[in-house]
Amino acid sequence: MTLAGATDTRSPSGDSAPLARLAGEPWDVLVIGGGITGAGVAREAAMRGLRTALVEARDLAWGTSSRSSRLVHGGLRYLEQGQLGLVHESLRERRVLLTIAPHLVRPMAFTFPVHRLARVPLWKLAAGMLLYDTLSLFRNVRAHRMLGKRALLRREPLLREKDLAGGAVYWDAQCDDARLVVATTRAALAHGAAVATWTEVTGFLHAGRRISGVELRDRLTGDTGTALAHTVINATGPWADRLRRMENPAVEPVLRPTRGSHVLVEKTRIGHRGAITLSSPVDGRVMFILPWDDHYSYIGTTDSDTTEPPDEAAATPEDVIYLLRSVNALFPNAHLTEADVKASWAGLRPLLAPRDGLAESARSREHVVLTGSGGMITVAGGKLTTFRVMARDAVRTAVEALRERDGRPAPPEALTDLTPLPGGESGELGTIRAQGIELGLPLPAVHHLLRLYGTEAAAVFNLVREERALSRAVHPEHPAIAAEVLHVARRELARTVEDVLVRRTRVAWETSDGGAAAAAETAALMGRELGWSPDEVTRQGGAYRPPGRPADHYL
Q1: Of 22, 20, 21, 1, residue with least CA distance to 11
Q2: Residue 337 CB: number of other CB atoms within 10 A?
Q3: Looking at the structure, do residues 264 and 325 belong to the same domain, yes or no?
Q4: What b/e string do you get for 442-472 counting C-beta neighbours within 10 Å, with b at 16 or more?
Q5: What are the residue ranges of helices labelled H in 16-142?
Q6: How deeply is 427 buried, as exposed, middle or buried, from its count of CB atoms within 10 A (0-12, 13-18, 19+)?
Q7: How many domains does the chain have?
């Protein structure tokens, strides 16, 4: 088990003290699920002064929250479905996240080309763009611009010219989804929450008919224990119905998940200059081509009905072909094939069960908060962009349950929209950048650390200052350095090599071998920090498997 309080996240493998701490006095709020929703709930509850714990069966952001389209956006395509309230809420939340996490959520210009006979004609796109800006109360990142054919081709010269009618440029934001979860969790830690990763809920404790706590199993050590709680919040995303059935086997499902698949290719294979929004010529649904670092781009997303378990979500051969065909039709010189796919990922969107006859892509991205027969509060549905709203609504329900339980007054609302996430204090970035340069770190490493950690890059620089050898790169193709591995093991709850390379440092997604060349070095550094035995270091390094490799998924 890994459990952290506000000051230190270190815990050698097999340490039973964190398990004992969870088993102490009842928590006011115990959150199950370490994705973006659970992290948001823990932050909200802790900032309201509630005694808060979060448990996650695997790593933070292991599921859908690290397998998204990496967008914080208003949802331009939701306008067609008449979900104006959701779009307005999403645009407001996008503005909040750009403010409190500027190192992780960055504005990005999107080009939306329109060809004749496309499902979305040019006039309809122009009307939608105007409405999009209006719903942001004209506080969009920048106002949209409509472009004619020639202006569009100057912007993206390799677009298919035949039948091109024109298009638009508008602004949304791209994010590092996994690191947004980590930063939100660390904000909860800073306000006194406890967080236990790789800790599975195996059952519930009861006082009469009501849930009074959870039974736990440490997935890394096999240790078992319990934790008492006045309220339990189910924030497990696509696993929500599974947990609800543990509470009440007769409960009707509230979710109907869809699979969102993405593929990663070399940017030069497509030839685009910036982010592209397109209406797929295959079926007309809206999808994206998005740059990721200087070398790669990813294409997404599908929206496929599925019954597969969330643990096993993966891009199917049909998903891959659909995505490649859609891009090839828009960029005719690309000629993408399955051999061009460097990696893929897929997550299950925890969408609310639809009304009869509603298409997958038309299902609501809104959320609900439910209270089960045993008193467990479930927050279901929603989307990454609106996680803060989902968290607020869930915690308000928990506060009311606590008031009914023991008459306590409601604590003040948390200022989660104004409080920066760790690393988000952007006013100090120039000074911290100078520190990295003064240490003699390569500029790519300095920029990489600032992008991932914001002002908290200073802590990584301090490690290098104390031990110069930690400035070495952990992978020959990547700017991540050895000090970074120690930092994420010490402060960010990383407990396996995969945690570090896939969800903390981006090495897995930004190298040709998926980070394999960094596995042994990463294991050695983690072992030094976490007290692993030599055998455990060897085991951890050998256990690493690059994520989303084609051979694993569809070839």
Answers
A1: 1
A2: 12
A3: yes
A4: eeebbebbbbbbbbbbbbbbebbeeeeebbe
A5: 17-22, 36-47, 84-100, 122-135
A6: exposed
A7: 3
What does the pLDDT look like over 394-444, one tens digit per residue? 999 999 999 999 999 999 999 999 999 999 997 788 999 999 999 999 999
What is the C-alpha separation between 84 and 131, in angstroms, rounded? 9
**What is the spatial distance between Cα 390 and Cα 38, in angstroms, rounded to a whole number?**
10
Question: What are 541's two structure tokens?
Answer: 């390094």
Residues 479 and 336 in one domain: no
Q: Which amino acid is at 16?
A: S
Q: Which residues pair with 164 in a beta bridge?
A: 115
CA distances from residue 540 to 13, 291, 519, 544 in whole angstroms, order as listed: 12, 31, 8, 7
Hey, is 457 helix, strand or coil? Answer: helix
| Mean pLDDT, residues 132-160 | 94
To which residue do tokens 């000629």 refer? 335
Neighbours of 329 (CB within 10 A): 15
Q: Domain holding 135: CATH number?
A: 3.30.9.10
User: What is this structure's pTM?
Assistant: 0.95
Query: Minimal CA–CA distance to 231: which of 205, 211, 201, 209?
Result: 211
Which of 369, 56, 300 lies closest to 184 in space, CA to CA? 56
Q: Is 89 helix (H, G, I), strand (E, B) or coil?
A: helix
